[in-house]
Amino acid sequence: MPTTIPAVPGPYGWEIPVGVTLSDAYALLEPLLPPNLVPNGDFETNTAGWSAIGGAALARDTAQAVVGSASLLVTPGAGLDSGGDCYLGASSLAANARYRATVYLRGTPGKSVRIVLNEFNGSFSLLASHQLVCPLTATWTAHSLNLTTSAAANRGSLVLVSNVAATGPFNADIARVVRVP
Asked: HEC states along 66-115?
């Protein structure tokens, strides 16, 4: 891996030059990013911290990855509601603060997955549920949900929601929730 990347100006801002992989660029830039509140959002070793809901199956997939060598494969089950949710436990959130939830997704074109960031108070009562419908494509696509927490918020959970009848298996990688200025 290179220790520096000579970014060059391009029509869309600074671009990574030809020959530098996305993995190398991400490895160099990650320490400069705000702290990620999602533990194990890259799935490089396992699926620890993530739970399947509604009969879904979760697996570490080494055949697909945005960066690194693995991603999360979600295979919907036959649950009554969405059938293919995966859930990451609660993380601390600050009241009246701005956050961005980002996840890279790929799956069957024409299908969709929802990113949901739930906001809770200290008693774990649901205060708000922020959602974004993300159309799936055959290639990795980043999806981001921006939100401002309420005055009583102090916990949050990240959920990837699919519909068993409409989604089919999908992959997720580089799941991040960060506080933004």
From this structure: CCCCCEEEEECCCCCCCECEEEEEEEECCCCCEEEEEEEEEECCCCEEEE
Query: Each residue of 4-22: pLDDT tens digit?
Result: 445 554 444 555 666 666 6
Of 62-71, 78-87, 121-130, 167-176, the least confident = 78-87
Q: CA gyration radius for the chain?
A: 17
Distance (Å, whole) CA 23 – CA 12: 20
Dump pLDDT digits (tens) for 22-38.
Answer: 666 666 666 667 788 88
Q: Are residues 158 and 74 part of one domain?
A: yes
How many residues make up the chain in this entry? 181
34: number of Cβ within 10 Å: 13
What's the rounded Cα separation, in Å, for the pair 2 and 21?
10
**Same structural domain for residues 51 and 122?**
yes
